[in-house]
TrEMBL record:
Gene3D superfamilies: SET domain, Tetratricopeptide repeat domain
Cited InterPro entries: SET_dom, SET_dom_sf, SET_domain_protein, TPR-like_helical_dom_sf
Organism listed in the record: Lentinula guzmanii
Bilayer-crossing regions: none
Residue stretches of biased makeup (Basic and acidic residues): 410-427
Region (Disordered): 410-429
Coiled coil: none
Domain of life where this protein originates: Eukaryota
Record's protein name: SET domain-containing protein
Length: 447
């Protein structure tokens, strides 16, 4: 919960006023509501909600907010505003006697006589109902906001949709069958922050439109103690990209069926399918990268996820029925990776690569095998086994193209190695060792 000294508070208030002045009353109401929920003792925010509810013809809520403002505000100028707004709401609700009482209180607290005179004429012209009842506003603000402004941008070509994910808040679901390598999302960061100092993070949020700021405020914040905007950024920010709204709605799995990556040339975040994904299936990415996910036990992954994102992972690799076998596989993968640089025997090294990639597949993790394949290609180049070098370089390129996109720098670099495996620029150790042939060491065919 932000405190009153958090610079985010004044920024949100200014954005609420900006939205109101642009007649974007739903966004203004959402922002005023956010402020009042986070600082319920401040009557100014209820005053803002009251006038915005009047514009949205939410008469009952406008009256309630004005009443709350009267309870909390001490300054006569604020009391005058609250009485006048409640007077208008009561008039629309046919509570004419209550409206007249508020109009008198408006004048008593220093309200402008001319304004009161105009309102008095409206009250006289309002027909009295035989049964004066107060109508309830049944649509809550969050629903009103989400119905008016979709959580995801409307894109008829989108292959996913953002919706409720059964106890995990929102999530992304495939709206058509996807195959490994399919591009799921391409999104420009909403808050692109290169320097993540608190000042620059706050500045990034300050530059947003009121609507986009409201959308960012709907994101989970696992670190409210460090400041509102910094907390949202640290919970949802992507490496290199910053806050990317739709991408932040994809939930985590330690055995993901998709991966996210930043495409530097286009300055966009991408999510690409790691596996085939059925229509209606939830799309998962891993919030952990590289060896932090495929070579770490459940306890370490959970500790990292809990401390950074505030949740305990219950994915298929972490559930109680499977995690012990998964831990054994992933810890062995980690040991293989750490031992590769120290292996002198080329055959042993390549067999270890095959073992690591096999374990990754058995554990349902279909990313990052290219890292092992790059090392395998380099070893084969060192022993002048160009057929095997090409085999591993091709495996690395095809996997990087599928996981990052063929135009991604990772894939382009692998393509250069595949095109010129004997180049010392690509393989500095090419041909340095006695020739060896390792064509009998290959991955199982189903890979």
């Amino acid at each position: 919960m932000p405190n009153r000294l958090d610079p985010a508070i004044e920024i949100i208030k200014a954005k609420a006023d900006e939205a109101f002045n642009k007649n974007d009353f739903v966004v203004a109401l959402f922002l005023h509501t956010f402020l009042s929920n986070n600082d319920p003792g401040n009557g100014i925010y209820h005053l803002g909600r009251s006038v915005t509810n009047l514009r949205l013809q939410r008469w009952s809520d406008a009256a309630k907010d004005a009443t709350k403002a009267l309870e909390l505000c001490e300054a006569k100028v604020h009391k005058a505003k609250a009485h006048f707004r409640r007077c208008q709401a009561r008039r629309e609700l046919n509570d004419i006697s209550g409206a007249n009482e508020d109009l008198e209180a408006f004048l008593f607290n220093g309200g402008a006589p001319k304004t009161a005179s105009v309102e008095a004429q409206k009250l006289k012209a309002t027909p009295r109902s035989a049964n004066e009842t107060v109508l309830e506003d049944i649509t809550d603000v969050a629903t009103l906001f989400s119905n008016t402004l979709d959580l995801a941008d409307n894109n008829p070509d989108a292959v996913y949709e953002i919706r409720s994910a059964s106890g995990k808040g929102l999530g992304a679901f495939a709206v058509k069958r996807l195959q490994r390598g399919d591009l799921i999302l391409t999104e420009t960061p909403m808050v692109p922050v290169d320097d993540t100092t608190p000042y620059n993070v706050v500045t990034g949020f300050k530059q947003l439109s009121p609507k986009n700021l409201a959308r960012c405020l709907l994101l989970h914040n696992a670190h409210p103690e460090i400041g509102l905007f910094e907390g949202i950024y640290n919970t949802n920010g992507f490496a290199q990209a910053g806050v990317v709204l739709d991408a932040s709605r994809f939930n985590h799995s330690c055995s993901p069926n998709a991966r996210y990556t930043y495409h530097e040339p286009s300055k966009q975040e991408r999510i690409i399918a790691l596996t085939d994904i059925a229509e209606g299936e939830q799309i998962y990415v891993s919030y952990l990268q590289g060896r932090n996910v495929y070579a770490s036990p459940r306890s370490k992954r959970r500790q990292t996820l809990s401390s950074r994102y505030g949740f305990c992972c219950q994915c298929t690799a972490c559930d109680d029925a499977n995690f012990e076998e998964s831990d054994c596989r992933r810890q062995e993968i980690g040991m293989i990776w750490e031992s590769l640089p120290m292996m002198i025997d080329g055959r042993k090294m390549l067999m270890s690569v095959v073992r690591a990639i096999t374990l990754m597949r058995e554990d349902g993790y279909l990313g990052d095998a290219d890292d092992f394949a790059v090392d395998a290609a380099a070893v084969c180049a060192g022993y002048s086994d160009w057929e095997s070098c090409e085999y591993w370089a091709k495996f690395a390129y095809e996997n990087r193209a599928a996981e990052f996109g063929a135009d991604h720098p990772h894939a382009e670099h692998s393509r250069q190695i595949l095109d010129k495996p004997q180049s010392r620029e690509n393989h500095p150790q090419a041909g340095l060792f006695p020739r060896r042939i390792y064509k009998d060491i290959r991955l199982p065919r189903e890979m």
